Every structure is written in C-alpha cells, then in structure tokens.
C-alpha cells in the first residue's frame, strides 16, 4: 500500500541513525554526537517551516522568534526560583499539585522552580497562542509583506530577549536543569548522557517527520498544497484557505517552540543569538536548499548544514554563508539543489540577462 | 422558485461598467448559456456568482438564499462549482490529487486525524480516491491520474479541471468556455458530456464562444454586450434576433 511508500524512508532514517551512532562508537568519534543532536533539534524547526513554506506557500522570517519563545520560557520557568514569592496563593497552589520542584543551585542555595514538563507545555502553548494571534492578520498579507511582517515579529522577540532582565539580557539564561521526559529518559547535556540524548533527539525528529508526512498526505494536507497551487481555485473547492493557512502557521510555530525547549534543556541554557534574525534566515535558507516542498530534502539539508555550521566549518562567516546560500538558491535553483538541472538553469539565467529591458522573457 | 436568480446585478471597474444591471434566472435542471463578445462581462458575472468579486449592487439568490457577500468557499459548500476560462489547476499536484480536492467538502477528516493518520480516516481516504478516479474516467483522463498537472496537454488539463468541479457534486455548475482551445472532436465530446451531466440532475450555466455547441445543448441563452443583457430567449429565437446578429457581425459567424 501507499503507506509503505510513505514510511520506508523513515525506516531507512532510523537505520542510518543507529548506524551513525555505532560508527562513532567504534571509531571513537562520539564527540560528533553532540553536534548531531543539536542538528536534529534544529531540523525540527526546519521541517515545520518546510510544511509552512513548501506546502502551505507562506514564508516566515520569524521562526527563530518562535524557537526563542519556547526556549526562553522553558529556560526561565525552570531556573528562576519562586521561593521569594512562595507564599503567593498561586505559587502555593502549583506547589501543592506538584508542578513545582525543589532543587539546589550551584552554590547549594535552595530553589523552587517549575517542573520541566509543565514549563514545556506552557512554553509551547504560549508560542502556539502567539502564532494564532499574529497569524490571523499577518497571513492576510502576501509575498514581501508577509516576509516583512514575520521579520518584524522576529525582531520584536529578539529585542525583548535582549532587553528583559527576566530573560537574562545579553547573557541569556544559564543553569537550565535537565528535562526528565520519562523515568530514565532525560534531556541533558551531561557527558554520560550523550548517546541517550542523541537517540532522544532523533526520536523527536522521526516522530515529527511521521506526523508531517501523514499530514501532507491527508485531506487537510491536500487542501494546504492546493492553496499553494492556486488559492482562488482552492477556495472554489470549498477550502477555507485562511483557516488552513493559520493552522499550518501555528503548527510550524509549535514545532519551532518545541525544538527551542529541547535545545535549551540540552545545552543547559539559551542566549539571544538563538532569537536573531540571522537564525530565521538560516531556517528559510535550509528549506529553500532542500527544495521547498520536500520534507526529506529539508531534513537532509537541515542536518548537513547545521552540522557543518556547528562544527565551525564556516568559521566567522557562518551567518554570511547562509545568506549566500539563500541568494544562490533563489537565482540558480529555486527548486532546491536536490533536483536541479544546473546547465539549463544557467542557460535560462543568461538569456534573462541578455534580454533587453522591457522585453518579455519566458523560461 | 428558480435555482439561481440574479437581480439587478452591477459591477464597476473604475469607470468601466463591466456588469450593468443584469437580471435573469436559471431553472433547476436546465442548461443555460451566457454569450457575448469579448469583454462583455461574462467572466465577471461568474466571479460575482461564485463570490470571487463583490458586487457593487444587486443580489444573487441561490436556492432562495442570498449568496452575494459570502466567501467563495462558503458558496462552494452550498453547491456551486466552477471551471475557469484560463484553467486554474493545483500545480505541484497530480491529476488525481487535483480531483481529490473536489471531494474536500464531501469528506471530513480533520487536522489532527490526518496528522495521526487515524484508522477511521482510511476508508474515507479510499473513497475519496475511488470517486475521484471515476470522475477522471468520466472525462477520459484516467490515464493521467498520476501525472503532475503541469505536464499534461491542454485538453487533458481541461478534463482534469472539469472532473474536479464535478467531484464536488454540485447543484449548479458554472462552466467558463469549456470548449476553448479544444478541437472539433473534443468539442463535440464536451457537448455530449455536458448534456449527460445535466441528465444526472446538475444545473448548468455555461459561457461559450462556440456557437454551434451553444445552440446544440442549451435550453436558454442570455446575451451580454458591454455589460448589459440585450437578449434572453430560446436558442432558435436568439439565432434570429436582429440585435444579436448585429453585435456578432464582424466578430464571429453565428
Ligand atoms: N479584475 C478586473 N479589473 C479591471 N477590469 C476588469 C477586471 N476583470 C474584468 N475587467 C474588465 O471588465 C470587462 C469584462 O471582462 P470579462 O472578463 O468579464 O469579459 P468576458 O465577457 O468574459 O470576455 P471574454 O470573452 O474575453 O472572456 C473587460 O473590459 C475587462 O477588461
Ligand atoms: Mg471571459
């Protein structure tokens, strides 16, 4: 059945994930796992954005903002101690129903913080609500205007992170505790948990990609793709295009926020650079290289490029590299690099340049 | 009560009065044609009915409910489906997937059910697929099912678009020049198909330049010129109408 065709690549991915881990184990290069774990989490942002851009046809230059909302909220809630306001009714209530945990800070001082699961839910939920609130008006915009509005949103989040003492200003938040998903399954950056966390991250990616693959092959997914294909005709088929665009925007924001939460627990902190505009550009660039409407392309590129970037291959040109990638893709391979015919593209580009101004060029 | 009633409908584009005080009605079960020279306002009229353009004044009643002012997707759900003069298919999707979109309002799996691929959506999904194949088959383009629509020939694209409109199981079908760009055999085929669709109970409002097709299949004809309705009659009366002949002279053989 079709279902097999959909899930076989997932099985391949699973096998690859295991194979890579085994290779790093036997070649004693397991330090790579740290970057692979990080890349996996960033790829969760990328695949969510891919569905929004490639299938829903909406651009967002503000996804680092959603990532930051997730990461910062989870970070702040699980680190800032509520002891000073312990007697407040709400705090006491949360404590009573077990949503707060007591712990000790680095110097042995007592802490009372929000339990990571609760913080995660609050963080992701908040990102979803914000996406819902801004998505309504913003998604009425098209093309450049949508890009500018989401860019503006991203900048606001970045400035808030930088300006607010609660979010640690330029230093960001550190000392974020680990996140116990299940007994024995803990998102943490501690050395001993490296292999386990590699698998946790990849399980998240695999679950994410299964959900998104299902979605794009479902009734709602077809409707989303049809909006991209011809919005007017989609409407004429009874598709409430505005609502579906909003759904997918919220979904991709939730993916970004979840990645933010997990990365923050994994790294033990988050800083303002995660909220920066260049991060958003990076996510868009990766989706573009992957081929826009290509979940697997986005995933592969998300892993490869983030891994190279985290390894420091691009040096201090890191951000510039992603800017250049975006420009090059737009010029030479709007279909992504996994399915181009470079020669033909070059020819059509030259014919475009050679054409006299005002003359119509067809490709 | 007629199925579709258009009453004193007006639409301006700047100084251009594209639809000028047009009134007519379409009875349940008939094939009604709208003809007129290029720029007469036929497509604009369709856009007003389907909700793609707001009217400046006047009303469109469908099944005795006022539908102008509603959104296109709401109008579609009431049972009006359409094809476009310049074909509007969903690019990046196969012919089958295009037609499956036509089943959107006839199915209900939601966002979460789709994402989790819940088993109860499987029979529905299969049914959507099977029904869509039937419509592709009806239009003679079943062999294109798995081809991405940009790669189809023009006539095949027309067929897919027609199948998609039918797949919504409309009460009223709006066809904007369904025979444009087709050869005489394909045109005759489309004519037979339209008659057959009407026999299945679907009411049809048709814009068409091919006069022999229009005269062959329609029960009544409305003639528009510069946005105004200048005649509404049975086909053989339209053929003899002095004013209609004058308007069409030098434009196309009647
Ligand atoms: N969106 C629009 N904005 C401005 N003018 C428009 C618009 N749509 C149509 N018009 C103008 O309204 C007039 C009627 O156009 P319409 O497309 O309805 O004609 P038509 O009868 O369908 O012609 P054809 O036989 O060529 O399809 C034309 O003069 C056209 O230029
Ligand atoms: Mg027209």
Question: Any overview of this molecule?
Answer:
The complex is a heterodimer of chains A (363) and B (254). With 363 residues, chain A is mostly helical. Helices cover 67% and strands 6% of the residues of chain A. Chain A has a two-stranded antiparallel ribbon with strand order 1-2. In chain A, strands 3-6 form a two-stranded antiparallel ribbon. In chain B, a hairpin with a 2-residue loop joins strand 1 and strand 2 (16-26). Chain B folds into two domains: 1-79 and 170-254, P-loop containing nucleotide triphosphate hydrolases (Rossmann fold, 3-Layer(aba) Sandwich), CATH 3.40.50.300; 90-169, no CATH class. The model of chain B has no long low-confidence stretch (mean pLDDT 92). Chains A and B meet through helix 7, helix 8, helix 9 and helix 10 of A and helix 2, helix 3, helix 4 and helix 5 of B.
User: What portion of the residues of chain B fall into strands of 2 or more residues?
Assistant: 15-25%
- Let me know the average pLDDT of chain A: 87
How many individual domains of chain A?
2
**What is the string of helix and strand elements of chain A?**
HHHHEEHHEEEHHHHEHHHH
Q: What's the N-to-C terminus distance of chain B? A: 32 Å
* CATH-derived architecture of the largest domain in chain B: 3-Layer(aba) Sandwich
Can you give the helix content of chain A as a percent range?
55-70%
Give the helix level of chain B as a range of percent.
25-40%
List the total number of helices of chain B: 10
Radius of gyration of chain B: 19 Å
What is the highest CATH level, the class of the largest domain in chain B? Alpha Beta
The profile of the biggest β sheet of chain B is: 6 strands, mixed
What do we call the CATH homologous superfamily of the largest domain in chain B?
P-loop containing nucleotide triphosphate hydrolases
Helical/strand content category of chain B: alpha/beta
Q: Which sequence of strands runs across the widest sheet of chain B?
A: 6-7-8-3-9-10
